[in-house]
User: Fold these one by one.
Assistant:
Number 1:
Amino acid sequence: MKWFRSIVAQERTTARLTGVLAVTILTLAITFVLPPVADSQLAGGAAISIVILGLSWLVGWSGQISLGNSGFMAVGAYATGIWAVHHGSTPLIFTFFLATVIGAISGLIIAIPSTRLSGPYLAGMTLAFSAAISPIAQNYTSVTGGEGGLFFNTLTTPHWFLGLFSGQNATINANAQWTADLAVVVAGVAFFFMANLFHSHTGRAMRLVRDNDVAAELVGINLPRTRTVAFVVSAAFAGLGGSVYVLINATVNPSAFPLTLSITLLTLMVLGGIGTLSGAVIGGIIYAFSTNLISHLNSLTGINPTSNLGANMQGIIFGVLLILTMLFAPHGIAGLGRRLRFFVKSVRRVASVSTGE
Amino acid sequence: MMSTFLASPIMHNIFAGLAQGVIYSLVALSLVIIWQSTHVLNFAQGAMAMFASYIGMTEIDRGLNYWFCLVVSLAVGFLFGGLTERILIRPLYGKPEINAIVVTVGFLGVIEAVAQAIWTSTTRNIATPLSQIYFHDQGRVVLLSPFVLFQFGLALGIMALVAVLFRFTNLGLKLRASALAPEVARLLGVRVNRMLTIGWMLSAGVGVVAAVIVASGSFGLYPSDMDGILIAGFIAAVVGGLDSPVGAVIGGLLIGIAEQFVLAYWSADLASLGGLIILVVALMIRPQGIFAKSVGRRV
């Protein structure tokens, strides 16, 4: 019980619950208006936002870095896929739970040798881990389906939901929207949990470890254990996100988790804003509609999307954005918003002083 | 007697492992040079080397010879390394180390995407004037060819050059001084910033040699090819100790041989895990690296 109390925030839990609920309900409402294609993209964005949030927690709150979260994502994804192929009829909540736990365990295995490392060492170690997933999946073909991967179709739209739709393409619309709604709800639960964790005993300890590990040790915080917990939570979120990600696509294969995915995750996290809930939401939205944005950009500049340049546009833009954000706006879009609010407030204050109120 | 030994399965694996290992050693060495001077782990190191050697390859396409291509690649590598330090890395000194990691990872993404946009993602090969046909001895294959011997020689030569430069030249002394005690070096008249740029240039040059060797080999080089090599080189550097050039070189050879043995006796798919296993074991036993000096933490 003491352990449980250490990861739940003591105060303002209702306020956080209302905040996360409001955003979740708003997003659910939006899915009713969006066309099916956009709904599917939104579902992918919701799944990725869970992974981004886990990475954001690790980098922003514990000050550690991981280039291996695409690997943890793959672990959750394969756990989901293998389970779905053999036991397709179990309730989804169990699948999510399983993927989260297995993700967390893989995080623990990596954390044990890694928490002695810091910064670049840790980044390289986790990078080596994520690079090992694809060879393992290709080697144990009988379990993982090898190069071709596994196929499953576990997401069935319930009848009552189908009943809400009528007219042409009712089933297609209903299926796309059910997937999106499901992903959004899972993301909502994950975000609520993380919002609590940020302000819990563990979250505060984490920040102290990040800012001053010597002071943290002096007040009795166990450094290796705190760092390990940060890693495990991050990996659990990646596992859950990976699970949602492959359930949407109904397939899992090794090529879904390349090194570039790690770079994409990092870009989205930095762009959105490290260590914030809103940053992870922004990152998810950018991911969801990045293909649209890129094709729009291609048509604006007249680049043929099937040409070499057009096909690599996303890689180039994401990389450049990552570098520029890190150099010039390291707090990302969420940070810009905060700075803007601060700016407006200070302008008002100056105005009120000068008018002598 | 000797010849049957050279053609034995175990020597096959050792030769193949060493051929791969020298590539890892070069990459590890290039990472260590940067690490010592600027405490940045450059994740774009492999991609930069790939890009430089691709530019060298376009010279071969124009009908110029192999040695010229090597020189062009090296020159591009020096320039690339220096510019990267001046433009991307210099603003990051004194910032949290995560910033430098993120920037170099982003740079890796940009370089690979640009290379794929220009040259597509297919494998390219540099034709070498040296034969790639393995030696035979009394009808049995010895896994060495003139090209492999040249590869060993080139790698050893580069390593020796780096060692001589750092140990016995005035420039090397300045480089070491800037890395060890930048403030003192600056007071004594060393232009520390210039030394950091030179360190990055040297490092990029060493990386380019690795990429050219890969591109000249029978499997060629594709734009994201250096990712796996960078990871192996990184593992080698960590196992050896990121502040020990000798450790990095030995680490690279070890990883190359380990991968070859996994490939031969376990599974070809899992070959790249050989290095990861060594890394985990090494970290458990001696986290600071096998050849590194232990450093105390100052409170």
Number 2:
Amino acid sequence: MAREPLVGRSVPRVEDERLLRGNGRYVDDIAPAGCLEAAFLRSPHAHARIKAIDVSLARLMPGVHAIFTGADLHGQVEPMVFQIAKIVPPPVRESTGAWSRVHPMAALPTERATWVGQPLAVVIADDRYRAEDALELIELELEPLPAVVDPLDALAPGAPLLEPEWESNLALHYRFSNGDVDAVFDSAAVVVEEQFRSHRHIASPIETRGVVAQPDPYDGRLLVWSSTQTPHQLRDFLAGALRRSPETLHVRAPDVGGGFGPKGAIYPEELVISYVASALNTPVKWIEDRSEHFLATTHGREQVHTIALAADADGRFLALRDQITHNCGAFNILGLVVPYNSLTHLVGMYAIPAVDVEMRAVVTNTGVTAPYRGAGRPEAVFAMERIVDRVARRLGIDPGELRERNAIPPSALPYETGMIYRDGTRQVYDSGDYPELLRQARRLVSDEDWEARAGAGREVGIGYAAYVEGTGVGPFESASAQVIAGARVRVAVGSASQGQGHRTTLGQIAADALGVPLEAIEVVGGDTNAIATGFGTLASRSLVVGGNAVAKACAELRAQVVEAAAGLGFEVGADDPLPLGPMAALTPFNPGRPAGAPAVLRAQAEYYPGPVTYAAGVHAAVVAVDPRTGEVEILRYAIAHDCGRAVNPQIADGQVIGGTMQGIGGALFEELVYDDEGQLRTASFMDYLLPTASEMPEFRTAHVDVVSPLNPLGVKGLGEGGAIGPMAALANAVEGALAGHGVVVRSCPLTPDRVRALVRATEPPVPTAQETT
Amino acid sequence: MSEQLPIRLTVNGAELSAEVEPRLLLSDFIRHRAGLTGTHVGCEHGVCGACTVLVDGEPQRSCLVFAVQADGAEVETVEGLAAPGAELHALQQAFHEEHGMQCGFCTSGFLMTSAALLREHPHPSDAQLLDAISGNLCRCTGYQNIIRAVRSAEAKLAAQAGDGTPAAAPAGDADGA
Amino acid sequence: MKPAQFAYHAPTRLEELLQLLADGAGEARVLAGGQSLVPMMNFRLATPETLVDLRRVQALRELSVRAADGALLVGAGVTQARLLREPAVQAGFPLLAAGVAHVGHPQIRSRGTVCGSLAHSDPTAELPALALAHDARMTIARAPRRREFPPGSTNRTQPWNSQSERRELAADDFLVSYYETAVEPGELLEQVAFPPLPDGAGWSFRELARRHGDFALAGAIAVVAPGRHARLVLFGVGDRARRIASVEELLLRAPAADAVPGDAAALLEQIRTQVPALVAAAVNPSGDVHASADYRRELAGTLAVTAIAEALERAR
């Protein structure tokens, strides 16, 4: 092109001004005339038989329009069946014997409640205040049943069964085996085995979920506004569950206040509100409150790994064994998605000849789990990178050095792991420079005297976490591009933004592909009427799959425009900017339109990616630990990463730092805690602690970006990467700091109490008051 | 129907009168009665700070104030920072330039908290700055660019005021013990 | 998360406010800053029938230093932010200023009141502990009434003043237990008086919270004038903030400022070795999702040692 490409430049975001002026449109800002508001009655028990739900008194309250229970929905709304949970691509089955089963979820159950917070009834009232008043008058008769909370307990003989028709709580199983692991373990110089627990988190976007369903009295269509990451999937799901054609549904995700995975799931509330609005023929709004969010929005991360790593005396990894137990919560809604990611991201950037991994995913009486930024990767990386540090400590080798010794060299790429990826293709690391990522991360933490900075009384540790991340998974994404009035091009995409800045980055891609300025591009997403198909924004895929779809559609549109321009007598060379002005004049209403010129200039493209492309990163955390109080301070947090070609470096860094901060939250502060009865003890921001600006460490970043050969733009996904490393890096750093005490960090978050308990366990008992006075 | 009380207050300089239930939260009043949806609600228990507005010049969580308590008050919301069509406020401009926002949901609260901070302390110490914005949660940015944005706005406002004080001001009254 | 209905009053005169509280027969609650009450109402954990808002009562906004004894008088309507902005506080009450700066964030302090935090009596809150460390005195007011005591009153021996409307309590008598003070239904904590620290006393405020601005896992306040005055207040480690008498006795034996350096070192060593056990024996923390009881007990001892050492240092 004649001009500088926009891709690769930190173009300021085009979406900002509207949001900065307070003119954003989030779901709760949608206020159709006459809109009623909903509040859900939720199960107070983790497992209970529903004996009766008496709404007669509540129904009489002034301002209450209707109350629906499961009985009212029975026969009207199909049970929710999560088809994706059943999908096992044949190559995956052949490779691992994987199977998955799922029981249907009634949007409002009639027989049993299986987790605290499960919706049981919905009140529709003039406003939310009155709806909540009415909730207090519903008489709910439940017969508590034994509940199971811990995933290991769920597998024990005699455990309460979530689904009585199943013989156990096992919902999904696979086993991957490569090489003779037992033989290697018998003969290796060192074998280290540990059990590590990845604890339960919640993504907690600052905007909770919300739905507004609005029937159109003119044509009977139903407009559903939802704070979803996947409007097209929601449309098709609702069509099935409500037994209507998808064409009669219009789903819009307006501005969405953060997603991070949970808003990619489909929820009972979306179905119930859509049904209720149709049944009452009036707009209905439900905005999840924070309390509901903790109980009823999907959780993530809970896995137990019993992992063992064998190495020779020089620290070369020889064999890896891991038995993973994964907690699905009350329903296995997404099947292989998260559990299988844990397999294909466990080994990471190391060459290990023999690997044996078994997964047991179980259902329990807890909130449903689903992808949360990283989706099975942070869990696996926590176990793997912890065991690597245990081996390093056993052998007396610096953990950074040990990682470099085992990293796959660039010369070995593309590198085939021997595993099958979740999309059914062979897993191949396409590009990257893992030793250089390690060197850069080590360099970023080697320029200070940390002991001096920590000061007396505190101990310093440096911890690493290395990972690869398959990004840009299919099946497809779609985009269209059309010349519109005002010499502009409207680009519609199936993958909307929840803050990632797609209007800017996809706009940059479109502008380059078309050869027009960014100002001439308008990107629309999150609207099933703007483009007929789409997959959604999740799994670090939008830039790879959506971005290439945009590039493809825009290249096609450019060809159309060039041809049409030629018909009008404009010669447009390959490197020339596109003359949009004359093109926009080709409207059917223009009486001066040359005969034969096209009336519409529009291109549509689907991009079907091949195998995923591999982003990678190495995190290095420097911590100071006070062994007397257990306080952990991060002195520096360094990130070396590879996101392929960065379309907008400022936005890319924003994704990496933001993801890392979420990971730091999980490593040090955040934990969803259920008690033995399945009551959630952390259902507010007073008890579930998100990190604030005061907890932000000093960050350093380095780019080792290797352009992907797998897609025309050379990009890799980067939405999730930052969140993958922190649990492992910080646990390694804290254990390193306390190495003199001989502690082993087996779980996070590393609260002062937990860290102090590790140290105290290694100290002589404290004398009692009587002994000292 | 429950008791309704008359209130009169100014929001972004405009006088508003309304009859409200005593329990109506100021956040709901601003959003659903005054129609100013730039103020967002994230937790309704006073932790996330998304609903932060200025009440008589001080940053407050509008989810922890009943509208009746704001009777007679001057309330400022994000919509008041820059008039429609006018140039962005220095803070808004800085959040844009420094990429101090992603999804935008928490942004209004950060802007209002920062506006109050820079009015009271035109050159806040690091401790003052962190103390102020730690009352707001952001789940997207990791905060680094928000801090940069507030510092950038500090310099912009100082330049607008013709104040020659360098942006990197010495620490003021530090945060306690 | 929307509050239940309630009746609301915002009188302009104190007498009217007190009468409304008295008329509320225990179902009326004072609304000051609301930073603790409103979240509980939004969760519907608190559903008062009536709220009596004190924001219009000018008389409750007093913030001044009493000439007679130099005590800082803080009326029920004074916010924590206003206290921190007050030059007399920054100059003359550094411990108070340091401690209140740990209360929440500016968005909370701009509305939350000093007296409201005291009356809420959260065992992990800073202000009740600061009140103990300062030997603060609370003035409790109520509407004139017949001379009878409500059932369950814990202060039957307290004399009412000439109008039978006010009584004054020391902080230690004011604080009762978890979320409980000596304020009876129908009463108002009208004012708190913080006497200045004794001349020559050093002070220290130490707390450990999981994040900046959070309620403390445990906290320690030390005020020491060697040989003359000693306060060690711990919070977050029991049903309320408490002074630790055994440690205070130890500190009263501290050598004076002009003592030979060796004595000071010996004292510090004594503190380091003895205080944790004395503290552990004196506190009764409970565990929650943030920290176990054992951790809090031990942390209180650690923070106490640090605070005492810092206070001694400042006393020199």
